Amino acid sequence: MIAIGFAQTVSAQGKSATFNLKMTVDKYIETTPTPINFYYGTTGHENNAQSLDGGGVAGIQWNIAYANCPFSITLSGDNPAGQGVPRFARKETGTHGGAFDILNTLYQIHVITNGAVTGINGDGNWGIAAKEFPFTESILEAPHNGQVALNMYPYVNYAGNAARDGVPVRETLINSNFTNAQSADAGDYTCTMIVTLAAL
User: Considering the entire predicted model, what is its pTM?
Assistant: First the structure.
């Protein structure tokens, strides 16, 4: 038998090991402290029906959240009449009161991320009538600096909204032939809107 041996040699350069390292940043959404109280102002009186439109309140914008991921945004709400939508309403008062004066309501709403309008009315739609709530939109690109802003223009008791929202204009002209359902008493009309963000 002949034994043949092979000598093992080690390179002077050595051997390298590669580490593939990874970490994860959690998805994160934080909304601004609430409630946010905002007064849209007083209607004008130029004809039979007072209306409040977005032209008088243009440019209102709030930072509503910080997020580092794509998200869905859902708009919902209610009013004093318990209609389950953010439509302006006021309870009539006094001996002959009791019902609610309800004003047709439409919103033009934009979500702003990465310095651009990215949702809700950003697709060219004119607005969202109160009866169309709740409404959900997905923002598919993360806000890379974290900022999520929202602006909102109301169109309230506006003749063009009557068919869209299903609520007629409430007249403000003094007319003894009007019924309670045809006229709007003076006073503060309110509603609540809830903006909910969820990570995608």
Answer: 0.83
Residue from 22, 46, 78 nearest 171 by CA: 46
Report the candidate in 136, 155, 135 with the shortest Cα–Cα distance to residue 87: 155
pLDDT digits (tens, 9 = 90+) for 1-48: 566 665 666 666 788 999 999 999 999 999 999 899 988 877 766 666
Six token digits for residue 91: 């309870």
- Exposure letters 159-183 (e unless 16+ CB within 10 A, then b): eebeebbebbbbbbeeeeeeeeeeb
- B/e letters for 53-91, b = 16+ CB within 10 Å, e = fewer, are bbeebeeeeeebbbbbeebebebbbbbbbebebbbbbbe
Three-state SS at 37 = coil
Q: d(Cα 120, Cα 137) in Å, to the nearest integer? A: 6
Q: List pLDDT tens digits, range 36-68.
A: 998 887 776 666 666 665 545 555 789 999 999
d(C-alpha 185, C-alpha 102), whole Å: 10
Domain boundaries, the chain: 39-199
